[in-house]
Design goal:
The protein is about 30% helix and about 25% strand. The protein is α/β, with parallel strands linked by helices and about 210 residues long.
Length: about 210
């Protein structure tokens, strides 16, 4: 679990790349500068950990490209103590970024293998989400709702209605919508029944899977 001066130097370079690509939120950039992304990857990928690329993490899943993590995090407009629902814990890297930005993170993962890995890894590196859950992300976490913001880290063909219902008025839901290619979509809840929709171009994610039972 080493984090060396070399790793820090590579993170500094990554932050420069993200700034050049248009990431401006200082809290997002600071979190990416601090978090040892190489610890979230298989050790065989360690040399590539600070490239702006996605990599496999097992169970058919990937750790998202740092730019994608930064872009989604920036869209959330997180304030300290914001209560955030994350659908798709995955490697835990996005979870760590949100925690370091001061959010209270409630995260759901449907792959048991990844859930176990992440539940062990995050406390080891000093990251403590409010709640990690093994289950169906389509359903959200109604017992902990409402949330200030919701982030979905897998491509979804539709916006799950339970997630919309669990968002506070004024809250932001960031979700990649589509099948093979996804459009990054932001919904802002205006009142009990109305949502304002914004689209931010094409991204690529693994699919958001729904438990059918």
């Amino acid at each position: 679990m080493k984090d060396t001066a070399k790793h820090q130097g590579l993170r500094n370079q990554l932050v420069t790349i993200l700034k050049e690509k248009g990431i401006t939120d200082a809290n997002v950039l600071e979190a990416i500068k601090i978090i040892p992304r190489h610890l979230f990857l298989n050790s065989s990928f360690e040399d590539y950990a600070y490239q702006d690329k996605a990599f496999p993490i097992g169970a058919g899943q990937t750790i998202s490209q740092p730019y994608t993590v930064a872009f989604q995090s920036q869209l959330l407009e997180i304030k300290k103590e914001h209560k955030i629902l994350e659908i798709g814990t995955g490697s835990g890297y996005q979870t760590a970024v949100l925690c370091l930005m001061g959010a209270k993170v409630y995260s759901v993962e449907r792959q048991r293998e990844l859930f176990k890995q992440t539940s062990t890894l995050l406390p080891k590196i000093g990251i403590r989400p409010k709640h990690l859950s093994f289950g169906d992300g389509y359903k959200g976490l109604p017992d902990h709702a409402p949330f200030d913001s919701i982030i979905v880290t897998a491509g979804a063909p539709i916006i799950p209605k339970p997630l919309m219902a669990q968002l506070k008025v004024g809250g932001r839901l960031v979700i990649p919508l589509g099948d093979e290619h996804q459009i990054m979509t932001l919904l802002i809840r205006k009142n009990e029944t109305q949502f304002e929709k914004h689209e931010f171009g094409e991204f690529r994610f693994v699919p958001l899977l729904e438990n059918k039972n």
